[in-house]
Amino acid sequence: MKKKQSKKKLLNKKKRNNADKTAFANIDRKSKIYTPQKPTSSGIPKYVADRMARRIFFTAGIPTIMGMSVFVISYIVVTRNIAEIPPSSTIAISALFFLLGLAGLSFGILSASWDEAPGSFFGIENIPMNIQRAKAAFKPASQNFEEKS
Fold first, then answer.
1. Does any domain span residue 124?
2. Residue 92 domain-assigned (yes or no)
3. What is the residue range of 107's domain?
4. To the nearest whole percent, how much of the chain has pLDDT over 90?
5. Residue 30: burial class (beta carbons within 10 Å; 0-12, 13-18, 19+)
6. CA–CA separation, 84 vs 72, rounded Å?
7. Of 23, 55, 96, 117, which residue is 20 to 30 A from 7 by alpha carbon distance?
8. In a domain? residue 96
9. What digits encode the pLDDT tens for the residues 11-25?
10. What is the pLDDT of residues 58-116, one digit of tens each?
11. DSSP alpha helices (H): ranges in the chain?
């Protein structure tokens, strides 16, 4: 036989069921009201990014490919008994090319002109100005960090 439930328990169950049904009913309405503001574009313009990519390809890509090809060439030379190449020299030469590629990556980014006109071939005159821009970009973040500390 079933036990009879008190009226309070029955009312509590009804309230819980109603609360469960209406708990998420207004979520869609609230999310449609909120419209985020578009952030102002303070990034790198497309023509500058394309210019940087071309410079990086030549100044970092070519040395990096040469650094990887050192292993292939060394393998071919050693397996065909053309010459004895110690593994340490293979690693040293490839590391030199990879470091040259790393320097080329920095040079490719820092030497790109931010003007509409392409600028000079090497772009050495743009390096000090781009270093100042990079410092200015990181300055607000470091100031906020110092204030919170």
1. yes
2. yes
3. 46-142
4. 34
5. exposed
6. 14
7. 23
8. yes
9. 566 556 655 566 666
10. 999 999 999 999 999 999 999 999 999 999 999 999 999 999 999 999 998 888 888 88
11. 7-22, 27-33, 46-56, 62-79, 87-110, 127-148
